[in-house]
Amino acid sequence: MERKTQRTTPSRKAKDRAHYSDEQIYAILDEALFCTISYAEENQPYSIPQSFVRIGNHLYLHASVGSHFMRTLADGRPVCITVMLADELVIAKTAFHHSVNYRSVVVFAKGEIIEDRELKYDAFKALTEKMVPNSWDYLKPMSKSEVDKTMAVRFSLEEASAKIRQGDPGHEASEMDLPIWTGLIPIKPLRQKPIPDAEGAKLPLPVHLQY
């Protein structure tokens, strides 16, 4: 299936803002820590936030083997997965022209449960390293029992698109002489200094957490 489909083509400014390359889509997915998964069950819509990781051309999610949510996603029903990174508020001379600089991805796919223990292990490692870089080898090794108690579901990125808006605000010619400030307000999230709990306070902060 080609990535560019009717469902992955934005209804507005598709020519300027839609992207379908691995480079664009993967970069956004690798930076984002969380996605939102939307699906329907018995005519009831659901939209659930979840951490995820990309490996190759698939997204991987994990949860307890007892999770009804994950088992629902793994039954082959169609889902829509979305990710958005908001970079800046775009401040124009009028509220009408205010905007947001963002990078987003929309994926249409069906879930596939991962039974292979080695592949599950690799997915858990990749997710852990994404959330807290360089932490996997520092942590207590994941046991066979822990792997077995955790479910992994993956989704293909074959039908996906990115949409990106970057740049300064737009202005109408009639607005140019108005004494109103315009520009960008950065709103990117930043990792801050870790806060130890009672046990963590007994030890020096490990190198991989010294941002």
Explain how this protein is built.
The chain is of the alpha+beta class. The chain is 19% helix and 35% strand. The chain contains five helices and eleven strands, in the order H-E-H-E-E-E-E-H-E-E-E-H-H-E-E-E. The strands form two sheets. Strands 1, 2, 3, 6, 7, 10 and 11 form a seven-stranded antiparallel sheet that branches. Strand 2 and strand 3 form a beta hairpin. The two termini are 41 Å apart.
Tell me the layout of helices and strands.
Blueprint: H1 14-17, E1 18-19, H2 22-31, E2 34-41, E3 44-51, E4 53-55, E5 58-64, H3 68-73, E6 78-91, E7 99-110, E8 112-113, H4 117-131, H5 144-148, E9 150-156, E10 160-165, E11 183-186
Please tell me how large the radius of gyration is.
21 Å
Secondary-structure arrangement, i.e. CATH architecture of one domain? Roll
Average pLDDT, rounded to a whole number, is 91
Number of E strands: 11
Low-confidence stretches: none
- Element string (H = helix, E = strand): HEHEEEEHEEEHHEEE
Helix tally equals: 5
Distance between the termini: 41 Å
CATH class of one domain: Mainly Beta
Category by helix and strand content: alpha+beta
Rough shape? globular
